[in-house]
Write a structure and sequence with these properties.
eleven-stranded antiparallel beta sheet, Elongation Factor Tu (Ef-tu), domain 3, 2 helices
Amino acid sequence: MRAMNQSAPRFLLAAQWVVRKGVTLAEIAVVMALMGVLGGAVGLTLLRQQRFYRATTEVLHAREGVRDALELLSTDIRGMSTSDTLRLVADSAIELFANIGSSIVCHTDGSIGVGLPAASSGRGNAFTTFLVQPDSGDIAVFHRDSLDGESEWERHRIAAFGARPPGTACPGFVVDLATPLSPHVKTSAPVRFIRRGRYSLYHASDGRWYLGYRRCNAVGASVCGAIQPLSGPYRDYSSNPRSTGLLFEYFDASGARLTPGGSPVAIARVDVTARAESRQRIVVEGRVNAPSDSATVAIAIRNR
């Protein structure tokens, strides 16, 4: 009995130790509450980060749309000639002949076939360069070697354009013209290739407005093909020049503003304003926002 009584305290201590090893319901509730608060804070942080990156992406997309539009339009407008290549001047559209390539005449087959050198030679020289390869819907403009008082350049519509095989005179490209070449165009004469097209702000089937491009017929009245989107979306078209998505403004050499739709001969500068919008609206700090960007570029016409 005494031995049993002496071992009893040890048993009670062991039992107490086992009880202390467990977790109470209150402790579990506190831990769960802390985990919920921590999880909520992490989730809220991730949500804010997601919204931030989404907003940044939309802002960059809007800026990219503005940059692409202004760079593309600046290149074509700067190189055009108002006397013979500008066909439409409007507040949201412009139609012109844009340069798509250049070369030199290295061979003539009769009066309608013209040979051009290859785009590159073994020595690294490039006498022929194309942004896009010309075809039957384009114009070739040849420099005239004459002093007869006529135009310095003569224009011919391209009937066909193809490759000239190796082993022939002037291997590279061959251009078949719709009309005979005059004798004033000599070998090594510069030749430019131009394409008629129209840039405009248009309303797409998704309800948004984009900068679009239509390729038009080379000669005669303006007949253009299907429109192709280039960049956007932009703000909706408006007659208000301060809010419309794409705006063309025209000025003469003295800086006076010209009315759209008038004669293009007097135009010396074109100002282009692009106002792009994001593809999606985002929520920032509880407010719905549509990231946007805008810019204006003044383009002096080089070939007046």
